[in-house]
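Structure first, sequence second, as always.
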């Protein structure tokens, strides 16, 4: 919902120079969006929205749902039997933590470490799943049986947000050398954030460019 042009119109209503019906984006509009971003006039960037359907492990959902300006509806483990879909880090996932709290960097592991990670995840997931299903088979309610499932199991949710909230989310959940305030997000939520950012770039191109040019700070 919305566009770069709608952001300009929202800003221009204060001087009664908005254009209805909406015209095509022009050079002045680009300048205005950059001005709004640079001077942190944030509310025009709220006149729009996107809805995402996301499937990710519960530990990613927990981090995601800390963002209070994103509206969420999630599937319920009380009402549906969960599927045996579990996250196992692949061999591209950095494993080794270096540095100190707040300034961690991560490096790839050795082959034997990936094997250990894979085996540990597989063992716990299959045991947990066996116990979950065992309780359901004995007539125990889903809301109790799910207690034994680990946070690596997949959940699914719809997320609705405006572009101001999107930029705030991206500023915290991506690493980018253009960021004025670098963040250190967990790898898995960054995968989600990167995917979401492709839609910002596609549908709000000028806003996205300005976001990058002014240090990836939400206005
Ligand atoms: C790298 C990283 C590490 C983290 N580590 C931890 C951790 O160890 N423990 C932990 O608990 N959390 C942690 N978090 C989560 C973090 O504390 C925030 O909850 C999360 O990033 C959401 O940020 P936010 O509150 O700015 O966003 P939103 O909730 O989307 O809010 C957006 C903005 O709205 C305003 N706002 C929203 N609600 C209020 C309010 N009630 N009062 C005043 N202003 C408000 C603020 O300006 C806020 O920045 C971490 C986050 C990151 C990115």
């Amino acid at each position: 919902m919305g566009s770069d042009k709608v952001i300009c119109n929202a800003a221009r209503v204060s001087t009664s120079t908005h254009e209805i019906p909406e015209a095509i984006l022009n050079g002045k509009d680009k300048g205005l969006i950059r001005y709004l971003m640079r001077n942190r006039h944030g509310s025009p960037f709220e006149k729009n929205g996107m809805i995402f359907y996301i499937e990710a492990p519960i530990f990613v959902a927990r981090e995601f749902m800390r963002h209070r300006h994103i509206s969420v509806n999630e599937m319920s483990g009380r009402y549906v039997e969960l599927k045996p879909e579990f996250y196992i880090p692949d061999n591209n996932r950095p494993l080794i933590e270096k540095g100190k709290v707040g300034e961690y960097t991560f490096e790839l592991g050795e082959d034997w470490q990936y094997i250990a990670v894979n085996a540990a995840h597989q063992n716990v997931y299959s045991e947990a799943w066996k116990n979950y299903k065992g309780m359901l088979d004995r007539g125990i309610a889903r809301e109790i049986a799910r207690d034994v499932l680990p946070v690596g199991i997949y959940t699914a949710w719809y997320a609705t947000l405006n572009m101001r909230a999107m930029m705030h989310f991206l500023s915290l959940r991506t690493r980018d050398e253009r960021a004025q305030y670098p963040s250190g997000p967990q790898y898995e939520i960054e995968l989600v954030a990167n995917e979401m950012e492709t839609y910002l770039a596609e549908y709000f191109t000028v806003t996205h460019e300005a976001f990058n040019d002014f240090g990836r700070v939400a206005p």
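Margin note: DSSP finds eight helices and five strands in the chain.
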